[in-house]
Amino acid sequence: MISFKKRSLATRCVSLLLACTAGVTGHAATVTWDASLIGAWENPLNWDNDLGPADGDSAVIISGAPNFTTGTSVSLNAIRVLGGTLNFSGGIFNSTNNSSYDSNVDGTVNHTGTTATINELEIGRTAGGNGLYYLSGGSLKVSRGLNGYSLYLGGNKTATAAGTGALEITGGSFSTRSSVKLGDGTVAGTGMFTVLGSVISEISIAKVTGDTDGTWVQNAGSTLKVGIDIAGVRKIFIKDSSTATTGTSATFAAGSLLDVGYYNGGWGAGSGGGTWTVMEVENGDIINNGLAFSPGVNTSIWSFSIDNSGANGLLKVTATGTVPTTNIIWDGSTDSTWATATNWATDIAPASTDYAYITYGTPTISAGTTVNFRGLRFRGGTLTVSGGTFSASALSSAESHVDATFLQTGGALNINELEIGRTVGKTGSCSVTGGAFVIGRGLDGNSLYLG
């Protein structure tokens, strides 16, 4: 167990004196989070100088989980997330005070509501680093660039070793001043840029202050991941400068990867398929030197195409044919028993190729009942397993969602990757007080997502 001791008065005076001296001489300070009181960014005692980062300082997070919330405002030279988790939920965050500073993430950032403007941003680019940035709300602007790039995902910064970096966007807005680079062409180290769904308000490359040509460079082993929801997906727009009609491009190296699938209700569009634009290059081409689907993409359903025939280059994904799934909808018209066929809209309970779709009611699984279906789409009501065998694992690539109340008091449950309360605007909970609860598979390395 970690315990934090109150600093002595002498230590505090020394810290104050050093901070004042830094202010007088004009030298920027590096202030490190030490979480003495755990939680709030704005509490000065959570920082090693007992004052917190001032305008023009660099803030460093090595461990812990600072919360940057509504009402908080800073203007830093840089933010260095070297470990731990930084939570942005509100307020105004700027790390643009000095244009020569870059910021880096080799820990985790959860960005749900803050307006953040950052100079050049590097995620997982240090030797052995692993950076994760999740943007689900608010605004992230990368307002400058280093060597022509505003955003680096993975790759090498020191030429000694490489790191891995990922940016996942499910909501809010993302924009940069200049280009984006995934991975590195000379050493190991990869990046993943993920766009999930249509509720994202904007993804624009080379839009922020300045007037430059945007480019996208994706190296071998790095991945562009796209999730199609019921309304489609927000495309990545790579902007051209206003002074010329050439210079923009997107380049996919041999061995670069494209991962695509349905997301967050996209199964509703799955029966008919469709075509969606995932990237558009204004007044420029998409250069394909060997882009390929990631392992696990169902190529009997999905294909991609690159169209440079018009003014703007387009990368599109297509789902063709009929996806062999059926959404079996609970209506509870007879009783609360799952196995009663007339409780389902089709008068047939979910089978191995089906998703069980529940928006209300109180379906139950009790002793003596065995069910096995493709996946669970649980949006409302209360589902109870008190006995029997409940399996949502008939297809290994299908995940299940719980955005309502799930209770298990007995029986055996076996489910693929499970997401609880991960749908935009939804809340989910699972309570297990008896029986066996097994999550048998994973998605992107995780079996369970909470929120």
Characterization of this structure:
β28 and β29 form a beta hairpin. With 451 residues, this protein is mainly β.
Short description:
By secondary structure, this protein is mostly beta strands. It is built from one helix and 43 strands.
Describe the secondary structure blueprint for this structure.
Layout: H1 9-25, E1 30-32, E2 58-61, E3 67-68, E4 73-75, E5 78-81, E6 85-88, E7 92-95, E8 103-105, E9 108-111, E10 115-118, E11 121-123, E12 130-135, E13 139-142, E14 149-153, E15 164-169, E16 173-176, E17 179-182, E18 191-196, E19 202-205, E20 215-218, E21 223-228, E22 236-238, E23 249-252, E24 257-262, E25 274-281, E26 285-288, E27 292-293, E28 302-307, E29 313-319, E30 326-329, E31 354-358, E32 364-365, E33 370-372, E34 375-378, E35 382-385, E36 389-392, E37 400-402, E38 405-408, E39 412-415, E40 418-420, E41 429-432, E42 436-439, E43 448-450
Parallel strand pairs: 1-2, 2-5, 3-6, 4-7, 5-8, 6-9, 7-10, 8-11, 9-12, 10-13, 11-14, 12-15, 13-16, 14-17, 15-18, 16-19, 17-20, 18-21, 19-22, 20-23, 21-24, 22-25, 23-26, 24-27, 30-31, 31-34, 32-35, 33-36, 34-37, 35-38, 36-39, 37-40, 38-41, 39-42, 40-43
Antiparallel strand pairs: 25-29, 28-29
